[in-house]
Write a structure and sequence with these properties.
alpha/beta; 8-stranded mixed beta sheet; 7-stranded mixed beta sheet
């Protein structure tokens, strides 16, 4: 019987393994992923400095040192825009690279990895059975937007966005920056261009799906990207469509031996589509909760996991949900962008709110209210 089985070996899954083994290196930890590594994953590829700080807590350092930091961030909506230097740089690293390095770090810490497509999870009295034959004391579901673990736990999925991502040569006017361009219609809908620093940019477009409007086609998504960021698709390749399970007003992980982390838990920032910070943060917390539950011979890691995630992300999730709701008004969205253009502090507040664990600060709230 494994102490911990992690379904999915992306950032959330690898972080769960790292979190558990940092507390107790003697634990038996198995990561199960349907893909072999390295593998691509549709994503904006943005790595906030907050992510690196979390990984340093489990002795994973230098993971992006050979990539170029990005210091400029731009937000636009039509004729309204802001571009400033961020208080701290971010990195844009393809998931083929970043995820592989995290998996290798987890393996170096003592985790095992097998390639297997998990089709079901059964919670029993003394253990949880993964795929009918892998026995585990605890399970972390880190298997993405279409999580099998979430389905078998009976946890409902929340709002979802649909996006398309590709890689395109970086044009000079968008070099050395991360750019988000909001669409003119119903929000959230935005295009992005994130310079990787190697001559290529991660480009894409996404919008929230809704029952009262038609589901966008691939052609629709591509057309919106080109409309908002002209020339972004020139010479592009590696297109990949994907779903983004957006976070809401609150998140309440279930008690017991099975936890959800990252995309599987429905944790994608509804303002920016960012999810790697949430994935690493919740993965680490889930892994630590498992190790501590094993230490006291408890079958419930979910309850302490819920307390810790609430402490870290509770207020932040409420603030991002409120900001996403307010930004459905073009007038308020424009006011926020104008305020960020006029005040570096407000700009920094928006960046933290969109890329990591920031909150709606007083200056930002006053700027929105005045609109």
């Amino acid at each position: 019987m494994w102490d911990l089985v992690v379904v999915g070996a992306g950032p959330a899954g690898a972080a769960a393994a790292l979190g558990a083994l940092a507390v107790d290196p003697s634990l038996s930890v198995l990561m199960v992923d349907r893909h072999d590594f390295p593998r691509d994953k549709a994503c904006g590829d943005g790595i906030a400095p907050h992510v690196l700080e979390l990984l340093a807590e489990v002795d994973v350092t230098g993971i992006v040192d050979d990539w170029t930091p990005v210091r400029r961030f731009a937000l636009t909506r039509g004729d309204v825009g802001v571009e400033r230097s961020m208080a701290r740089p971010t990195w844009v690293v393809p998931r083929t690279v970043f995820d592989q390095r995290l998996v290798e770090a987890a393996q170096a810490a003592g985790a095992d990895l097998i390639q297997r497509r998990v089709r079901g999870v059964q919670v029993q009295r003394r253990s949880t059975i993964v795929d009918g034959e892998i026995d585990a004391r605890f399970v972390v579901g880190a298997d993405g937007a279409h999580s099998v673990v979430r389905r078998d736990l009976g946890v409902k999925a929340g709002p979802v966005a649909l996006a398309i991502r590709g890689y395109a040569p970086t044009p000079p006017k968008r070099a050395a920056s991360q750019v988000i361009a909001y669409g003119p219609g119903r929000q959230p809908s935005y295009a992005w261009s994130f310079d990787r620093g190697d001559g290529w940019s991660n480009v894409g477009y996404g919008e929230q799906l809704s029952a009262d409007r038609p589901r966008p086609s691939r052609a629709d998504l591509m057309a919106h990207l080109e409309e908002l960021l002209p020339g972004a698709t020139d010479g592009a390749k590696s297109w990949w469509g994907h779903h983004l399970p957006l976070s809401g007003w609150s998140w309440r992980p279930p008690a017991g031996p099975v936890m959800l982390a990252g995309d599987a838990a429905g944790l994608i920032n509804p303002m920016t589509g960012e999810g790697i910070y949430y994935a690493v943060a919740t993965g680490l917390l889930a892994g630590r909760a498992v190790a501590r539950a094993l230490r006291v011979d408890s079958a419930d890691a979910g309850t302490p996991y819920r307390r810790q995630t609430k402490r870290l992300l509770g207020r932040h999730l409420r603030h991002t949900a409120l900001t996403a709701q307010l930004s459905r008004s073009g007038r308020i969205l424009d006011a926020g962008i104008r305020a960020a253009a006029a005040d570096q502090r407000i700009f920094d507040d928006l960046v933290d709110l969109g890329l990591a664990d920031g909150l709606i600060t007083g200056p930002l709230l006053r700027a929105l209210i005045r609109s």
